[in-house]
User: Which sequence fits this backbone?
């Protein structure tokens, strides 16, 4: 798929298998969306958020979201999550961690409006608020991503990944619980455009004007 600054008018979707092994981080099935190259350098600082319309053939879904930066086909490493990752990556041992990432179980999508902000959803994670999925029925979820700072240089692109488990760059020993009951044989879907417009929120720092008064 494609990341764009203009909302698509027609509704589309990308499907991916949720039936995978819990340790299959390198080849995790996913829906991926890539932007056009940036025209200018972009500085960012703060919270990222993914607002996604998702559906599944199962009663629940683990939704892992990662944002990576590409220079051509090469991923640009950022020291935002685990410095040791990049030492290993230099030796060809592991893929770099993403620029930012987050995860949400779809059934725990309920938020507290009083505590939530436009860039940071506050999920209640209360049993009474749990909302299992109805198979193949789209729901809107807001996935909080780690707050980071950095710069995306002109010519580079963003890549958004949505997968059922952590993708490349996952930290060994810190994997989250894997429930086979809603993974086996399941297919997940990310919808875009029309009445199901998925999007990401990026904390861009405005460019200061050099114009004097």
Assistant:
């Amino acid at each position: 798929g494609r990341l764009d600054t203009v909302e698509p008018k027609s509704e589309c979707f990308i499907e991916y298998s949720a039936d995978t092994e819990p340790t299959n981080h390198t080849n995790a099935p996913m829906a991926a969306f890539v932007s056009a190259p940036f025209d200018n350098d972009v500085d960012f600082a703060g919270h990222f958020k993914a607002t996604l319309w998702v559906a599944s053939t199962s009663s629940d879904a683990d939704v892992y979201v990662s944002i990576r930066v590409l220079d051509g086909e090469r991923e640009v490493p950022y020291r935002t999550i685990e410095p040791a990752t990049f030492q290993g990556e230099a030796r060809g041992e592991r893929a770099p961690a993403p620029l930012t990432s987050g995860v949400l179980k779809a059934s725990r999508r309920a938020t507290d409006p009083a505590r939530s902000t436009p860039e940071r959803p506050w999920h209640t994670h209360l049993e009474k608020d749990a909302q299992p999925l109805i198979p193949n029925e789209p729901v809107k979820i807001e996935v909080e991503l780690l707050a980071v700072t950095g710069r995306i240089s002109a010519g580079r692109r963003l890549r958004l990944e949505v997968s059922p488990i952590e993708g490349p760059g996952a930290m060994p020993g810190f994997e989250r619980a894997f429930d086979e009951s809603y993974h086996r044989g399941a297919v997940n879907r990310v919808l875009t455009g029309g009445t199901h417009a998925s999007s990401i929120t990026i904390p861009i720092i405005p460019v200061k004007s050099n114009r004097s008064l």
Notes: Residues 83-90 form the longest helix (8 residues).
